[in-house]
């Protein structure tokens, strides 16, 4: 029998091979990522594996897909449920209004530490906000609803196998092979002609809307390897003549701890597609919707840490507003150095980052008893802190990647437009559509941290939570 984690690993591997055939520059990205990771490992030794073994980092991928309706989201949730992947987090990419995309998203991923260690494959999954009147007027919404209701993204046989795999947590080898074959096929780029007029009508709203609702199938929009030095990868890809987007999204490169997620990509390439005209004739066209993304993962931040992170982004925006774009990185590094702890130790002591905690068995005796607070236990060498890797996404970074690749200008700032229907899209609505809860990522990290604290000897369990100091 084939367990869920093996199904997940097999799906990720086959999807990577398929995407490499469809987008050859992705294979180059994977090769360069592997080279960079090997170089970092040679240079830094075991310290390079502090946020994951080199085997896990090199094999790690995340994908991105887009669907059009709650029904399609519910079906894709069944497919990923077969792989032991759960919806985690709610991301609203319709904000800020001036750069809004008509999608809301969640991420399907494993949630238990042992499952993440076996294979951490995750898929960022977006759904079109068809009912949002800021994007779609009544006439276009009616046509879009009819178009989406008439298509089938996932064949019944695939969904039946998915339901069995999720219920039984395994499939026979023959059924596993059939499931993987059907699942990978469901995310291949279709060769069917695209209605050029219909696609263009959606593209006037948003290139993302056209990519979702202008075709009769879904497809992988990008696959993302993980790299240990994203700045070096950016330089090497550029050196190979591959056009990268202008920036690395997320936190800046700085001497302190790596936190959250940094991402960049090569620009979406013009891919040949068959386009059907109003007279029924089919011509050769091209669309730019798929690209190759790469990521570097850091330490997960606590709720308080995320509030600080968001505030720092605002400070960077404010200070960089009157400066040349090329100076934004220097501005961000200065803001980080001014406000963020410079060490993992301080990040843990101030309760800004998530860590697991472990007793230090060979601490020299000094005749004193352990303190009762976490910061004191860390400062006194009673405990060591191991960082918890950030497994999720950043909406601002995701939107920046999408817009950099799709030239998605849309109709401009939508502030105040529409009838307020857009407010109905939230985590509860996605949960209801899927029949399964959208999990809170903070709660998952907290559970992992608290489990480690519960395993400490009683004398080393902190009775006072760390108190955040000096973050203003």
Automatic annotation (TrEMBL):
Gene3D superfamilies: Uncharacterised protein PF07063, DUF1338. InterPro entries: HGLS, YdcJ_bac-like. Residues 404-425 are annotated as: Disordered. It comes from the Bacteria. One of its GO terms (molecular function) is dioxygenase activity. Its EC number is 1.13.11.93. Transmembrane segments: none annotated. Its cofactor is Fe(2+). Keywords: Dioxygenase, Iron, Oxidoreductase. It is an enzyme of class 1 (oxidoreductase). Belongs to the 2-oxoadipate dioxygenase/decarboxylase family. This is 2-oxoadipate dioxygenase/decarboxylase.
């Amino acid at each position: 029998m084939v367990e869920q984690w093996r199904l997940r690993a097999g799906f990720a591997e086959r999807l990577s091979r398929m995407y490499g055939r469809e987008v050859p520059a992705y294979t180059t990205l994977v090769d360069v990522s592997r080279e960079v990771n090997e170089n970092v490992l040679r240079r830094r030794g075991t310290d390079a594996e502090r946020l994951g073994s080199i085997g896990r980092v090199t094999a790690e991928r995340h994908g991105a897909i887009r669907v059009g309706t709650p029904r399609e989201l519910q079906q894709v949730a069944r497919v990923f449920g077969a792989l032991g992947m759960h919806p985690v987090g709610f991301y609203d990419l319709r904000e800020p209004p001036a750069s809004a995309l008509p999608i809301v998203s969640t991420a399907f991923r494993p949630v238990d530490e042992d499952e993440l260690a076996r294979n951490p494959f995750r898929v960022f999954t977006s759904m079109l906000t068809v009912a949002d009147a800021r994007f779609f007027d009544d006439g276009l919404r009616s046509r879009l609803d009819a178009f989406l209701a008439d298509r089938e993204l996932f064949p019944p046989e695939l969904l039946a196998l998915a339901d069995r795999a999720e219920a039984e947590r395994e499939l026979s080898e023959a059924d596993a092979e059939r499931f993987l074959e059907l699942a990978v096929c469901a995310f291949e780029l279709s060769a069917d002609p695209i209605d050029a007029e219909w696609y263009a009508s959606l593209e006037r709203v948003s290139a993302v809307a056209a990519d979702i609702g202008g075709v009769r199938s879904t497809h992988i929009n990008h696959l993302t390897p993980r790299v240990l030095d994203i700045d070096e990868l950016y330089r090497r890809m550029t050196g190979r003549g591959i056009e990268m987007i202008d920036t690395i999204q997320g936190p800046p490169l700085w001497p302190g701890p790596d936190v959250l997620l940094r991402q960049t990509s090569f620009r979406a390439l013009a891919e040949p597609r068959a386009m059907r005209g109003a007279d029924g004739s089919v011509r050769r066209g091209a669309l730019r919707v798929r690209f190759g993304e790469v990521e570097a993962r850091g330490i997960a931040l606590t709720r308080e840490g995320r509030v600080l992170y968001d505030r720092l982004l605002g400070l960077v925006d404010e200070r960089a507003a009157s400066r040349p774009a090329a100076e934004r990185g220097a501005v961000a590094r200065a803001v980080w150095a001014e406000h963020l702890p410079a060490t993992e130790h301080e990040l843990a002591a101030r309760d800004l980052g998530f860590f697991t905690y472990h007793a230090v068995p060979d601490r020299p005796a000094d005749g004193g008893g352990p303190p009762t607070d976490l910061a004191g236990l860390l400062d006194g060498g009673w405990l060591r802190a191991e960082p918890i890797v950030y497994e999720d996404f950043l909406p601002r970074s995701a939107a920046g990647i999408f817009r950099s690749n799709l030239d998605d200008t849309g109709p401009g700032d939508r502030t105040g437009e529409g009838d307020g229907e857009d407010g109905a899209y939230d985590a509860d609505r996605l949960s209801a559509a899927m029949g399964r809860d959208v999990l809170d990522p903070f709660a998952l990290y907290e559970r992992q941290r608290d489990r480690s604290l519960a395993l400490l000897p009683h004398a080393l369990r902190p009775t006072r939570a760390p108190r955040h100091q000096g973050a203003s």
